[in-house]
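Table S2 (text version). Query chain:
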Amino acid sequence: MEKRLRSSLKSSPEEFISAVAGLSLKSSKAALKSVLHSQPPPLASSPSSFPASLHRAVSQSVAALRDLLRGSPDADPGDLASPPSKRPRRSSRRLSEPRGGGPSPAGLDRRRQKALEAPGLGARGPAVRLGGPRESSAAGDLLPAVQALHDNLVLFESDSVLSAEIVGLCEEWWKGDLPGRENLISQFLPFLVSRSLTLKKKVDVGRVYAMREAFGLFDFEDDSIEDMKMLLIRCVISPLYLKTEEGKRFVAFMFGLSRQLVKEAFGDDQIADSVREEVDVGGIWGYTGLIEGAIHSGSAALATSIRRVLGGFINQRTVDGVEKVLFRLTEPVLFRSLQVANSDVRQNALHLLLDVFPLEDPDATKEVKDSLLDRQFYLLERLLKDDCPDVRVVAVEGCCRILNLFWEVIPSSTITKIITRIFDDMAYDNCSEVRLSTINGVAYLLGNGQSHEVLKVLLPRLAHLITDGTLSVRVALIELLLLTRDIRSFQFNKVVTLEALLSMLATDQAQVAQKITRLLLPSYFPSKVTFEEACNRCVTLIKRSPKAGARFCEYAASEGAPLKSLMQLFKVFISFVLSTDKLNEDQIEVYLMVLHTFVSNLLVSHHTRMP
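Corresponding structure-token output:
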């Protein structure tokens, strides 16, 4: 065989390709390797003719295969453009099925076999020629032929040996960092992932994981890769992927690629049902690795992505058996991780605790369940005092979230301890992010009506934050007051005094002044009373604090006051200024200041509202 191949090389590349084409893939590989690596190189006299001839032969064979499929009346054109699925394609089966009026099965088979000869060499030749030292120049010459094989991989699916050779070639091309490797993944990777899911072999999962960096080149927002996304979602619920180390690592890596992919993985009932089915076959046990990854990941973004994956499982805890599995998977590592020296691990573990809270063994006695719950509250209280401010930020909002969701069933003594810690310590924390989280957490807690009686007493303890040195904290406090204003049993001026609010309205930055204006608008320029009454209230505000009144008028239009009413108010102020016998010089100056800011902002607001 080798002698015949060497002889054909002396004639022309075309004759060499013709000689190799009739040989089987397995038997010819060794001979090809010997011939193509011989010294001197057999095609040294015309180094570029072999790649060009190979490309031409592959292209002609692809065209012949397409013609063969077009000649089949039942062929499905869609079979030429989608990645492989679990079942053989209709088009590949029909190549060997008889059809009325068409060629005989034997004739079709011979034509198909003939058309596959050049692609066979195309898959073997570059791989063998590059099997030694990889030269980028040689790879660049061979790339067109390899590209043609890759782009038409679906055509060769019926020949499992040939398609495996093409996949192996693309795989080696990527690993060898050869020119154009990014162009050899769009068909090859879906084929490889589908193969791993269909054949269920660990070695294929390892191959997929080894190619993980290539998945980063896909645009997961593009609708054209829907097939690829569905294959990746199948990986998430595949027992093989969840049981093997490389499979678990690939799933964890995969959800760091795209938030949209995570949403699609667990965003609808169909996928949730698939997760539920996997519980029956033991696939869910693979989530042990994900739990460890969510806790020990050095990347906050990756840890968040893994928790989203776990969320699909946690949300199924009402399904029989899931709560027990969740406890057995989480309990051994979670409590230990909440107390380690590494603050990143403590923070990740805290996030997970908040996701699974309350963690309990459904088969345990009431005493054991109560003890486990007390342990979780003890750790939460401890984390409120954590040395790391990032951990305290998560702890304070997390505690408020838990109180909001479970207020009715949490012992009053536990509520008192946690909420006292939040108002007396966290609200005075030296980290502004913790103080901000305290306000946000309390705002969240207001969503539970059972907390209102307690909060009415405690909210005034946050009054000092109106003068906080951090702008975001002051803004958040005014937003909290806006929430209380809309709750009948609360009075915002009993949380922060009117004097303090007017002082900040007069002197603080625009963000704070605008929100205070919105807060005071129903009191000092209400729309549900007569204009005369509204005007009198606004005048009262100006007399009480001229600077605060001026800024109130400045932002009233942008905060929702009716434009028509504001124009009437403007006329009233002008009449005050013109009636010099009713006002002294200082009062006139105040109203002139009010009119100046009022008119300036009114013009801006009017132009903004114009279409």
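Notes on Table S2: The chain has a mean pLDDT of 78. The chain is about 70% helix and 0% strand.
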